[in-house]
Amino acid sequence: MSTITAGSPHVVRSMRQQNRRDLQLALLLLAPAVATVFLVMIVPLGFALYASLFDYKLGREDRMVFVFLGNYAKFFTDPVALHALLNTVVFSALSLSLGLIIGVGMSVLLKGISAKSANVMRGIFAMPILISPIIVSLIWRYMYDPTYGLLYYLLGLVHLQNFGGLTNTLTALVCVVVADVWHTTPFIILVASAGLTVIPDDLYEAARVDGATPFQMLTRITLPLLTKVLVVITLIRGSDAFRTFDLVYGLTGGGPADATNTISLYAYKQAFENNEMGFGMAVSIVTLICLVALFGPLLRNSATSGEA
Amino acid sequence: MHGLRNGVAVALTLAGVLASSWALADGVTLTVSRWAGPQADAQQKLLDEYSKASGVTVKLHAIDYGQLKQKQTLNMSTKTGEYDLIYVPEAWFAEYSDAGYLTKLDDMVKDAGLTGADWDFADLSKSSLAVYTAKDGSLQALPYFAQTPLLVYNKDEFAKANLQPPKTWADLLAAAKYFHDHGTGIALPFRQGSAITNVMAVLLAGDNTDFFGKDGKLNLTDPALVETVKFMQQLSTYGLNGSNGWHWDEVNKVLQFGQAPMGITVSGLFTALEDPSKSNVAGHLGYLPIPYNKEAAGLLQTWAWAVPADSKNPKEAFRLAAWLDSKAGLTEMSTADPSFISFRASLASNPDLAKNAPWLAAANEAFGKGVTLPLQAAAPQLLTDLATGLSGVVTSGTDPAAMLADVQSKNASKF
């Protein structure tokens, strides 16, 4: 009788065949998803990159003129484009910072109350995120209106009815940030609340016994242990804020005097209003490059820390 | 009773127009593309009537104006054949025509088998037909609807203030200042966008000047244009609080609710102003061309029906367009939506239509010297830059001459 042992050639060959079959099955199961991603993401991205090298108008594919990096040069020499990029960076930074402060702060506060009450409050706070961005822009457009908006009525009660609002170049971007924070902070609250549940209560107990203040517990326990969650929030919210279009389009259309013009809105206007599709594509590629430059390191760091 | 008799007469005429023209075309489905809104709702009723009488199924794709051009362009450029009839404004016509997207209609407008008995081609305004005539001289769309910005004022407020309805710039500034000093002001569509440039175009035409010089070159630094923008800047200082962030809709609303004693808005939205179920001031409003420096003028914002070159049913599509553009079709549309103004001379002075549309006389006076916005290929960028510049002038006090010089330097080489 022959004995088959674990390291015998027969067993090794059999394991290799099994592994190959497993790999083939995995590839087969992945194929539809990969094909979908390829068709709806990679192909359009490739076309956008290709079209950005041409002077291209929608519907005139037969009359595309190769301009190589001409569209990119046009972007970096257009003061309106650069101003839109600056607005976008400022908007994203403000929206993300405020969102994180308010969102994490509220999550921490909700953790300190009874679970039942916290769940009810969390449900109420989450409501704005259920509204589509264009409706949010319409709601806030009317809220901000000096003649019949709720906000100005309230400001009038404290003699601040002369607030510039959406019609002043100095305050318009701040007003858009406020609307965006109102809409998107619920997402931060929900994700941060989930992150807080994995922090053991023992740590807080021990800290209290040692006489730590709430602020010390926040900065020495909560925030450090919430880092990975904060990275994810920053990645998602930051890239969303950078690409914001519908809120600005509905609220101000980029005005007054381009004070709230963002890179996405600029790309849209160039592509669809000025019929400069090639240039619009180039602006979109620039947006992509900015996003990769700003948020790529976060992705890389979170991947390497995962491996560690 | 009079209205009911007229309605029945129009309906019978419409049915007669259909019956006299052709045999029922069963099995044909036409898809119509236009922008959504109250007019589209009124149009749907007409199309349902057409379907019942002709046997042709008509589907209406009414979508938001902001997406309309992309949708139409994408379909026509890829020759999907999805649309049989499209609604085209004068601003897009040159682009569509140059790209070869549209069917030539010269033979069809002469074919009595397609146009029907109620056609009367000569009744259509020649200037509107010229707008939709391509560079090769072929007619490629049927002008259908016109609108223009007008001044709307509350007659009671003016009577109380002992003010005459303003006709000139000086009158307008005086009235606006009066109301501003008394807590309100003039409602203006001065948000960064198309409305502010539309108002500028009307004011320029009323000052017998234009964006371009007689040589066809861009001429924004002309003193007359600087004067016009200075006037807009001065007028904005008497604007109702928030005007610098309003488009036509918001101006219409404050007029409708009686919050503004006067305002500049577009005639296509006027139906709500005189609807007693929607307006607090129905029957109390007066309408005038926008006050001028030299003579009354208006903006020819026109929409027309065109048959895409890739339509699978071009003749049936044209038949539908001709039916919509017939006297009976236009009368019914104007009755359903009084803010609908057509290009037929015979309907301009129709007393029954004027009864429900008190702005008709003012609109016709404005159309008498109607101008279009620049229609050249480079015009959209020019208008975008002007809208941005004008927004800066009215919100931040930017010097009008400097703004115009800046826009001139950016755009002059493109014209």
Shape of chain B: globular
Strand order within the widest beta sheet of chain A: 1-2
Strand order of the largest sheet of chain B: 2-1-3-10-4
State the low-pLDDT regions of chain B, or none: none
**Number of distinct beta strands of chain B:** 11
**Could you report the average pLDDT of chain B, rounded to the nearest whole number?**
91
Number of strands of chain A: 2
The portion of residues forming beta strands of chain A comes to under 5%
How does CATH name the architecture of chain A?
Orthogonal Bundle
Name the CATH superfamily assignment of the largest domain in chain B.
Periplasmic binding protein-like II
Residues in helix, % of chain B: 40-55%
Output the helix-strand order of chain A.
HEEHHHHHHHHHHHH
**Number of helices, counting only DSSP H or I runs of 4 residues or more of chain A:** 13
Inertia-based shape of chain A: flat
> How far apart lie the N and C ends of chain B?
57 Å
Distance between the termini of chain A: 48 Å
Number of H- or I-type helical stretches of chain B: 18
In short:
The complex is a heterodimer of chains A (308) and B (415). Chain A is mainly alpha-helical and 308 residues long.
